[in-house]
Every structure is written in structure tokens, then in C-alpha cells.
Amino acid sequence: MFLSRRGAHRELFLLLLAMWIAAPLGATTLIRAGLDELAARSERVVLGEVIDAVSYWNQDKTFILTDVRIATAETIKGKAKGELTLTLLGGRVGDLTTLIVGGAELIPGRSYVLFLSPEKLAGAKQSLTVPDHCQGVFEVTLKGRELRAASQANRHPLVPDRSGRVEAPGGVEGFPLDTLLESLRNTVKRQEVQR
Q1: What sign has the CA pseudo-torsion 22, 104, 124, 188?
Q2: What are the tens digits of pLDDT across the range 163-175?
Q3: Rounded to whole angstroms, how far apart are CA atoms 162 and 93?
Q4: Domains parsed from the chain with CATH numbers
Q5: CB-based contacts of 187: which residues, under 8 Å, 6+ apart?
Q6: pLDDT tens, 92-112?
Q7: What pLDDT, on a 0 to 100 scale, did the predictor assign at position 78?
Q8: pTM for this structure?
Q9: How far apart are CA 131 and CA 89, in angstroms?
Q10: pLDDT at residue 179 above 50?
Q11: CA distances from 102 to 164, 186, 191 (A)
């Protein structure tokens, strides 16, 4: 195909522009995960309220981590009674804040459905965390007279899953909390039988 010099420059410019725009997006997007997938790759699934959060430097003083204490109201998968502590990447120490784009955001006093597993984090020992970042956190809120749970992934672009879906499970409105919990209980039972 013959292109004029002007056409070639234009196409090169458009290609470079597309690469420049796509580069930051690739670093902040996640492949969409459904409820079955989130439950299958999580060691624990809990409903709980955040008691408090404390940020600190890791042992090597190279990264900020945040320990979050959760009062569990219900354990759907795994073992978790009373309180548990999970660790998230990022946080604030003094005047310095480390923000993880697409990371889980847990606020004291609020309730969440959380998908948790142990992982080694940025210079820290094995810690219980939310490995799927914002996809592993469903915020529980009161809308009208109904408790609903919506994925924090609604705030971030998701790469399509194998079937081409890009919307977080439950969409922007989320699920009625009872419906989500019942669905997760059934999913976990089914997955345990299949093992």
C-alpha cells in the first residue's frame, strides 16, 4: 500500500498517540472477575465492618502498608471469627501517601463483603490481603430501606473477561446484600463439592 509522506506521518502520529494513551491504562486496569472466580481463588470470604486502619513503613522502609482490623459479622468461606487483620498496599505515613490505583479502599466504620487470601506484599511477611484489589471489595450501603453491596471495581475500567463482559458483578447498583450473600454461600458449597 502506497502512502504519501504526509499520510505516513499522520499514521505514525496516531499510532504513537494511541500507545501513549494506552500505556497508563494498562497499568491501572484489571481483567473483570465474576463472583464464581473471586470465590474460587479466595481463601476466605467475609462480611465485616472495618474497626480501624493503621499505616506504616514495611520492614525495608521501601513501601507503605496499611493494616486493617475487621469485625466479622459472617464468614462465607474459610475460617474467621471475631476480628481479623488484613494488610493493604499503600497508605499514609506523616506527609507521604502511597496510592494504589485500582486498590481496595477500606474506611473505618463501614461494612464490606471481602474476598481474602494470604500473599507476600512489598517487603512484608505473608499477609492476609485482598489480592483482587478493588474487585475483591463490595461496599455495603443502605439505599432506601435495603442494604446493597456494590463492587469497588465500578470506579475503575475493567478489561473484558472471556465472555466479553466489562461491568463489575452487580453493576453500579450492586446486589441486595441478602441476595449476594446467598449466592456466595451457594457458590462456595458448589465449589467445595467439585473439589
Answers
A1: negative
A2: 999 999 999 999 9
A3: 40
A4: 28-194 (2.40.50.120)
A5: 35, 36, 39
A6: 999 999 999 999 999 999 999
A7: 95
A8: 0.84
A9: 10
A10: yes
A11: 20, 28, 27
Q: Which amino acid is at 108?
A: P
Task: List 147's β-bridge partners, or say none.
Answer: 142
Distance CA 121, CA 133 (A): 13
- Parallel/antiparallel/unpaired status of strands 146-151 and 175-176: antiparallel
Residue keyed to cell 435495603? 146
Q: Are 34 and 186 in contact (CB under 8 A)?
A: no
Nearest-angstrom CA–CA distance, 157 and 150: 15
In the chain, the amino acid numbered 155 is R
Grid coordinates representing 81 are 471469627
Q: How many residues would you count in the chain?
A: 195
pLDDT in tens, 29-71: 689 999 999 999 999 999 999 999 999 999 889 999 999 999 9
CB 139 within 8 A of CB 110: yes
